[in-house]
Amino acid sequence: MLIVGQGLAGTALGLELERAGVPFAIASDGHARAASMAAAGLVNPVQGQRFVKVWRVEELRPFAEDWYRGVEAELGVTLWHPLRLRRLFANATEAARAARKLASGELAPFARAADGGVEIHGAAWVDLPALLTRAAERWRARGVLCAAAVTHAEVQADATGVVWRGERFAAAVLCTGRGVLAREFFPELPFEAAKGEILHVGGSELPVGHAVSRGTWAIADAPGRARVGATYEPGVEDEAASATARASLLASARAFVPGNLTVIEQRAGVRVSLPDRLPAAGWRHDARIGLFGALGSKGTLFAPWLARRWREALGGATNAWPDAVSVARSHASGGR
Ligand SMILES: Cc1cc2nc3c(=O)[nH]c(=O)nc-3n(C[C@H](O)[C@H](O)[C@H](O)COP(=O)(O)OP(=O)(O)OC[C@H]3O[C@@H](n4cnc5c(N)ncnc54)[C@H](O)[C@@H]3O)c2cc1C
How many whole angstroms separate alpha carbon 40 and alpha carbon 20? Predict the structure, then answer.
């Protein structure tokens, strides 16, 4: 098996294959442009202005926690950090909407009313940079990770597998995030990109392990520190930190995070989604080139579960992926 890209998707797939004893190699062009290195790693079961429970969250969230905790033991690094997340209302419409949903039981067991907002249960943040860095060290030491930018022309698929730079593999799975390779091999998929930026700030008086959100969120990840994010710029595809994002994130965080906030670091990345905001997994027509992508803004929750589905598919399972996340699903009706 050849995995292309070692962001969150490629790392999760590699770890699953390792557990299953399936031999694999990873070709990675490094982490400089990986969205996973910019991401906050937030797992939030109830999202958005409309207070919507994430797709299959009852199954995905416990799976993700078990999975990351298992990887912690394997890699010797702390990844899963539980959070007390308070979602503050930005206006009266949001308050009324949340009240309706809480009364109907639609958000149970993940939300309950709190002063000026909603308290979200089951939230956490995952240290994705630590996961990627530690896995890369291990795979580099074992000769599994190869530093290379794979091009479309180099990958030759035939009846028995895939050949890349003279080496034969049973198949290749593209875990390339916003990289062009997925668009070249899956031109029928209407990928959408959105740039995002986050700040690491000092001077926060939010207690460690607490997070607050009001459009912008703040996560207290260390004493006196917090991460604040994220901007969302549809159609923008660069990883340059911008002064505009820095100013707007700082201004909104200062409105609800106690303390004298100062910027320590700024990170930017590009999320890739499909119109229905669900991820994509599955084979191209020849069943030799696969895709594990379109993780959008919820990769932290989706990736472990999808990696397990991939492991099952590579073990011979048919229908490993529900239709809702299959690369073959239709996108004719647009977003939801
Ligand atoms: C600012 C920001 C905040 C976010 N916050 C959250 C959050 O709180 N929670 C959450 O769940 N999600 C969040 N996300 C989304 C999350 O980052 C993604 O869902 C997830 O990290 C995507 O992982 P990936 O492996 O698909 O892509 P990436 O992490 O981008 O990894 C792809 C890798 O493949 C490499 N690559 C590409 N092409 C090639 C090639 N041809 N050859 C070799 N290597 C190649 C790239 O260099 C990269 O290293 C955020 C994103 C951003 C930008």
Answer: 29
